[in-house]
Structures are given as C-alpha cells and as structure tokens.
C-alpha cells in the first residue's frame, strides 16, 4: 500500500510541475497577470508532495518491505537501522528520488521566500526550475521507478554493497546532492534572467545566497567524501582522481568561479555575461557528473549503475537543458551588456583572473576524465591519473593562490600595486622561508611549492582584518577570511602528506614489531569478531610514539554475507602533527600476517581546511541573508508609510 501511495504522490508532483511550467510561462505574457498567484503555491505544494514520496520510500526500507524490488535488491532484514535508512539513497533509483526531492523542495523554498527579484523574472525562474524537474520526474517514472513491485516478495533482501555500509553513506550523498541541486537553482535564475532580459545587480543579489548555499554543501560533501574514501578503501590515499571523484570536483570548481563572479556583479555591476554563462556551466557539470555515475560507461567504486539506457536518458536531458540554455544565451547575448569597466589592477581583475584559473583547472579535470572514455571507444585503453592531473592543474592552481592572497587587499574598480606591496612583505617572506626550508630538506618541487604558497596564503588571508574592529567586522568579511585560510590549511596538508609520508609493508607473526615514522608497531594477536551483519578478523596492534606508552589499534578485515563481499576497516591514530594509518591484510602461507602502516604528517589539515572553507561560506551566507532581510524590512516600512500617507 505504501509503495502504491508513494508512486501516486510522485505522479501528482510531476503533474504539478507541468502546471508550474505552464502557469509560469503564461505569467510572462502581457495578459498573464492572473497566473502570478498560481505559480508560487504550486511550487510549494510540489516540493511537499515529492518529500512525502521520498518519506514513503524511507518507510519501505525501514520496514524491509521485500515485495518492493528496490528494497529487495538493496537491503536486508539484519542490517542496522542507520544503514536501512541510508540504503534508501545508496542505490540508483533512491538516489535519483533524493535528487528530485531536494530539487523540488529548493524550488518551493525559492517560491516561498524570494522577494528580491521582479515578479516576471521570478516566474521565469520557477518555470525554468519546473522544466528541469520534469525531466527528472520523467526519468524516475518511466525509466527508474523506485516503487516497482516484484511478482512475489523475495524471501530475503540481497543487502547493501559492503563499501556503502558505513556511516559516511548517511551524510555524504545527501550533502553532495544539496550542492548539486542548488546549482540547478542557479541555472534557473540564469535562464529566468535571460528570458526577461533582467541581468543586473538585483538579479545577482538574489542569486548569490543560493549559489553560496550550494557551494557550502558541495564543499562539505567533497570533504566528507574524501575522508570516507580515505579510511574505508584502505589504500592510504585521500584523493586518487577517480572519475566519479572528479564528477563532484568539477561542479565545485565551476560553482567557486560563479560565486566570485556573482559577487562582482552584485557589487560592481560587472561580468554580466560571464556570470550567466557560469551559471549554465556549473549546472552542466552537475549533469555531466550524473551521467558519468549512472551511465555505466566507467568503472568506479562510486558508480551506481551499469545501464546504458539510463545513461542515454540522462545524456538526452543534458543535451536539452544545456543546449537549450546555450541557445537562449546566444539569442539574448546582444541584450546582456558588458557592465561597469574596471582597471587591470583592481579587485574585479583579481577575481576575473582567478575565475580563469578555476576554469582552466575545470578544463584539465574534464579532459582527463573524458579522454580515457573517448580512447576506449576507439579500442585503445589509457589511464589518466596523478602524473597528469597533479602537475598540469598546478600550472593554474599556484598562480591562483598567489592572486588569492593579493585580491582581497585591492580596491574595487582601480588601485595601485605599490599601495599594498608593504603589507604583503610578511606573507612573501614566510612563503620564501617555507619553500627554501622544503628545498633544503629535499622535498620535491610540487610539494615544496605547495608548502611555500600555503604558508604565505595562511598569513595573507588574515590581512583583510588588519586595522578593523573585529567585533564590528561584517560576517561576509569573516567568511572570506576563514574560507581563504581554509584553502591555505588544506594546501599545507596536501603538500605535507605528499612530501613527508612514509609507508611500511610488513609480514608479521604475533609479537613482532616494525617501525614507521616515529611509531613502533607491534602485532599482538589476531582474533575473530562478529558484528550485526558481518564477521571479521581483527588485529590488535600496540603503537608507541617515540618509545612512549602504547596505544591499541584494532584494524579489521570484514566479510559480509549479504551481499557477499569484503571491506577493509582501517585503524587510525591522530595526533597534532599527523596520523598513523594501519591496515590488516591476508595471512600468508607461512602463517605471517600482511600489514600496511603509514605515517602521514599533518594529513588531517586537508579535512580541517575543507571544514574551514565550508564554515567561511556559512558565515558569509548568514551575513548576506541578514543584510538582505534588513534591507527588505526597511523597504516594507517605507512602503507601509507611503500607503498610510496615501490614505
């Protein structure tokens, strides 16, 4: 009954999306004023309905309704409750319903609270959002029905992929999807502004909070996903340029460029065409990522489906949405004026430069991700990994970090480099000292440059606070400072991990000891243990830092029965100066156990930096929203006074 109800509600939501599109389009006509009052409530109701449909799917997973095909294929009665809930989106159909749910709720929220846009532009925006949603409704209802029944209930569920039976599944996909779908809002804003020829500061101020919110969730999602893969896959790396990892990075790069561009448009009425184009590109990267993950054209531990038919459906949606938006941009290009001019040395110029660098990195990642797929189509298999991505992206990343240190100190419109040169002397000296020390220590070129620029940026990121009353400093300034500091911290963590990590591979009998970095590690014993839906061999390892007291670590090699599979459960010990990483391997023919040990100096800075970037974005968002609310309240007061005076 719940499955049929959920499917019926989903059809109703899709019907409301059609009504929202039609009413929004009619509202743009000269005689369409009557439709203005229809679009907002329809958008809100559509979001509520699709949320109810998703709640119905969660209920089916929690109760393990094995008559539903999706539950039978991706759940099991013995799974812990948290994995039953997370299993709702740990599969293809459920994750797409989560996507549509977030998209519709976001559209409803826009309809409910957005008051800064002119009514016509808002109607065009909501119509564009409905048009985007309709494609995904069609995808769910026609190609990926999450509520499909089996002819006969299954005796037991097949279970969830062992790699996904981790607490990270509960947080990483929803967070990332909020970021993805938030970019659909930015896309709809761009399309709406193009339709009504209303690309200007007011449009940018309305669009900015939605872009900023999407960017925050993308940042946190990518950071969480990196750490999840780091401790779950058991290979000791935090990023290995997997195509699906790249699929989440590409929208973030485009969203970062869009965020800076929309800020310039809001503050200085410049970069109009560039902002609209980036709104289209950012969402197109989300669609490209969705296609890569769900088409079956690549092999990845992150990929959801191996189904070319579904991939073709998404590819068709990508062509319709992005092709249509680019066609609209071409038709409206003459109406999108250049906007205010600015000098070569100015804050606008610095932001434009970094946007170009971000787009350069985006192009590098996109080319490296798609190139193996193109060559494989011609029968040639190639592998593109860190030897390509690291040095080529560094060509763009390092100049970007330098300008990131300088840009916030520049004035809008026009400035002189000599004015800020004395202020930058300290971060420049710190960068030179850090780089020099790294070269003397024999660090390779790229990590040494990363250490130098990260150290310099860490100091430079604090300079916008110089001379300010910190209690009265606006939250957006604090947000910028903390976000840039987070980039510096993450860069230092990446460079340190690359420069100073040590690894030890060992075959040990119980009682034997090996050294890795400052740690002496002793394998005490191997024990069988059991969990709620798995069994494991667990190693007890005593770790002594520089001869100190022992810390016990418990790495595991887990075996799952439903579905059959294994998963490495690494053991981590984090200190202020790094992290010890221990993995249990297999038993050799001689009875010794294979063990892998890593000592990774300052590697936690990578994820600390990511969290700081997200925190900076959150503070900026709170500051912007609070400022906009004050402005709207003031406008309402003026309007109320005028109305009373008129009476």
UniProtKB/TrEMBL annotation:
Question: Which of UniProt's keywords are assigned here?
Answer: Cell inner membrane, Cell membrane, Cytochrome c-type biogenesis, Membrane, Transmembrane, Transmembrane helix
Quote the InterPro entries the UniProt record gives.
CcmF_C, Cyt_c_assembly, Cyt_c_biogenesis, Cyt_c_biogenesis_CcmF
**Record-annotated membrane-spanning stretches:** 6-26, 38-62, 96-113, 122-143, 177-197, 209-229, 249-267, 274-293, 313-331, 352-371, 391-410, 422-440, 446-465, 477-495, 602-622
What membrane topology is given?
Multi-pass membrane protein
Where is this chain's protein located in or outside the cell?
Answer: Cell inner membrane
Show where the Cytochrome c assembly protein domain sits.
89-295
Which residues belong to the signal peptide in this entry?
Answer: none
Question: Where is the major localization of this protein?
Answer: membrane
Q: Name one Pfam family in it.
A: Cytochrom_C_asm
Outline what the protein does. Required for the biogenesis of c-type cytochromes. Possible subunit of a heme lyase.
NCBIfam families, sorted: nrfE, PRK10369.1
Q: Which family does it belong to?
A: Belongs to the CcmF/CycK/Ccl1/NrfE/CcsA family.
Q: Supply the name of the protein.
A: Cytochrome c-type biogenesis protein CcmF
Q: Which organism is it from?
A: Novosphingobium capsulatum
């Amino acid at each position: 009954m719940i499955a049929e109800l959920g499917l019926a509600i989903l059809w109703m939501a899709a019907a409301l999306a059609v009504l929202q599109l039609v009413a929004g389009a009619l509202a743009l006509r000269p005689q369409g004023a009557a439709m203005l009052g229809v679009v907002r409530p329809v958008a809100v109701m559509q979001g509520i309905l699709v949320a109810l449909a998703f709640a119905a799917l969660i209920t089916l997973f929690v109760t393990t309704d094995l008559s539903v095909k999706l539950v039978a294929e991706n759940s099991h009665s013995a799974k812990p409750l948290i994995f039953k809930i997370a299993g709702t989106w740990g599969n293809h159909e459920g994750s797409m319903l989560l996507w549509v749910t977030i998209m519709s709720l976001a559209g409803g929220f826009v309809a409910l609270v957005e008051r800064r846009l002119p009514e016509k532009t808002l109607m065009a925006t909501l119509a564009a959002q409905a048009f985007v949603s309709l494609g995904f409704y069609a995808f769910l209802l026609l190609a990926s029905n999450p509520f499909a029944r089996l002819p006969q209930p299954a005796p037991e569920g097949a279970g969830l992929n062992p790699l996904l039976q981790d607490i990270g599944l509960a947080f990483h996909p929803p967070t990332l999807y909020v970021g993805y779908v938030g970019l659909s809002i930015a896309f709809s804003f761009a399309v709406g502004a193009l339709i009504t020829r209303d690309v200007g500061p007011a449009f940018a101020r309305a669009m900015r909070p939605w872009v900023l919110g999407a960017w925050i969730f993308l940042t946190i999602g990518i950071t969480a996903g990196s750490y999840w893969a780091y401790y779950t896959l058991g290979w000791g790396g935090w990023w290995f340029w997997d195509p699906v990892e790249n699929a989440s990075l590409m929208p973030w790069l485009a969203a970062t460029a869009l965020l800076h561009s929309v800020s310039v448009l809001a503050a200085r009425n410049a970069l109009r065409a560039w902002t609209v184009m980036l709104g289209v590109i950012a969402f197109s990267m989300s669609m490209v990522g969705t296609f890569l993950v769900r088409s079956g054209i690549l092999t990845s531990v992150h990929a959801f489906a191996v189904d070319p038919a579904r991939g073709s459906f998404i590819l068709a949606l990508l062509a319709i949405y992005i092709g249509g938006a680019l066609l609209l941009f071409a038709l409206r290009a003459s109406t999108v004026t250049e906007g205010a001019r600015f000098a070569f040395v100015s804050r606008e110029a610095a932001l434009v430069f970094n946007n170009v660098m971000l787009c350069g990195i985006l192009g590098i990642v996109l080319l490296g991700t798609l190139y193996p797929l193109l060559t494989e189509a011609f029968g040639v298999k190639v592998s593109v990994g860190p030897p390509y991505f690291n040095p080529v992206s560094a060509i763009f990343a390092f100049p970007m970090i330098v300008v990131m240190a300088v840009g916030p100190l520049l004035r809008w419109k026009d400035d002189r480099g000599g004015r800020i040169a004395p202020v930058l002397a300290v971060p420049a000296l710190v960068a030179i000292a850090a780089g020099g020390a790294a070269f003397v220590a024999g660090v390779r070129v790229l990590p040494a440059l990363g250490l130098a620029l990260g150290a310099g940026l860490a100091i430079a990121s604090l300079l916008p606070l110089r001379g300010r009353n910190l209690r009265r400093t606006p939250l957006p300034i604090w947000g910028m400072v903390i976000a840039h500091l987070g980039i510096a911290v993450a860069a230092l963590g990446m460079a340190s991990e690359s420069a100073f990590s040590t690894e030890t591979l060992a075959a040990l009998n119980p009682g034997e000891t090996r050294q890795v970095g400052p740690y002496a590690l002793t394998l005490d014993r191997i024990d069988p243990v059991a969990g709620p839906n798995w069994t494991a061999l667990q190693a007890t390892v005593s770790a002594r830092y520089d001869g100190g007291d022992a810390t016990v670590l418990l790495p595991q090699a887990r075996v799952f029965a439903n579905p059959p599979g294994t998963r490495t459960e690494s053991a981590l010990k984090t200190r202020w100066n790094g992290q010890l990483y221990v993995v249990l391997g297999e038993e050799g023919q001689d009875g010794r156990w294979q063990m892998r040990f890593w000592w990774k100096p300052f590697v936690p800075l990578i994820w600390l930096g990511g969290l700081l970037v997200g925190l900076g974005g959150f503070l900026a968002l709170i500051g912007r929203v609070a400022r906009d609310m004050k402005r709207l309240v003031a406008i309402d007061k003026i309007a109320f006074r005028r109305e009373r005076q008129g009476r």
